[in-house]
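User: What would this chain look like folded?
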Amino acid sequence: MVPLPEFIGRPPNGCLPSRTMKQAFHVPEVTRGQAYAMLGGASLMMTLAMGIRQNLGLFQAPASHELGIAISDFALAISVQQVAWGVSQPFAGVLADKYGTRWVSLVGSVLFILGLWLTATATGTWPIVIGAGAMIGVSLACTTSGITANIAARVVAPNRRTLAFGIVSAAGSVGTMLTAPIAAHFLNHEGWRAGLWAFLILALAMLPAAFVGSRADRLPNGLVNDRHLTLAGALNEARQHTGYVVMALAFFVCGLQLVFLTTHLPTYLAQCGMDASYSAVALMLIGGFNILSSWLFGWLGDRYPKRLLLGGIYLLRSLTLALFFMFPPTPLSVVLFGAAMGTLWLGVIPLVNGLVVQIFGLRFLSTLTGIAFLSHQAGSFLGAWGGGYIFDLMGSYDLAWKIGVLVGLVAGTAQLLMNDRPTDRVAAQAATA
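Assistant: Here's the prediction, encoded as structure tokens.
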């Protein structure tokens, strides 16, 4: 097999492009096997990072009870995680856009492992806040969708790009589905610390996955005409585009709803007298149906207006939340809720990434999605900490879910009406292509 650098700038083995080559899902600078390897590495890294992170809420009640801390203390750690993730995501995006994804993803993987170790050995609130909160938060900015989208955008042909974003983001769903039963087993038989040690062992595989996925750094991340575009110029374009601003603000609500659920659904079900295993079942179903959702909305995003699909997700998700929390939970309603929310969960990622590429092009993809994600994580902080605060204050989640539904309906409507026209620069490039 010819090394990757020899492929750059010409088809493999010097062959002329064929009908098959033109229809390949990957760019011509790499072989099919190399494309699968890089996408597989990125997907595995995100599978482990997102899968473990999504299930940390399962440890909230048992860890809080054993350590003698309040539910809101553990929720604070998850809230700090969201803020650390959001604040560091634009910086991780800038580094990935300018220098490549390798060291960003490797450093992020090491931080993730250390964060799990600190949480597993915690004796009070602050080790959890630092480990599960700050360290894992920063690591997620370096190992999840902001970085894996950069890899996928370089490897996959433009006409299949939104679908590729969906397939890679589905990896996080696979992780949730696989790690939820692992967490449930250890929580039921060995305790919450043993569950976190099991997660740490799994997380070690993020290191080789990051190394293989980041081989995509050798491929270009923009057109020749984009090379003169500076970071300041890209940020100015984004600031002046009203559609991007609306999308970023709607993303705040997305984070609020989703992290409220991952953090507080286990406590809510326990308060309603349901076995802890149903929380794991719900998260597992969310992960399983997320696989379908990410692929489906990635596929649809290559064919239909992404703003309409994105707005529809927000509206349907809000209605699903309202229907679930209006009535006492039952085993059947938990199963149906997990399936419905999974279908409306990570499908937003390929659509947001696709809209950024549609409006601004590839050059600063990770940077601009990172800034939008900062808004998402501000909402995540409010969803995690605010949900815990309302629960401690009022003894129930009634007010919290009503707020989540209301703002979701507003965000979905605004998303439907957003301006999704490309910038003048991108429109001019398309006209001359």
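The mean pLDDT is 85. If you want, I can go into more detail on any region.
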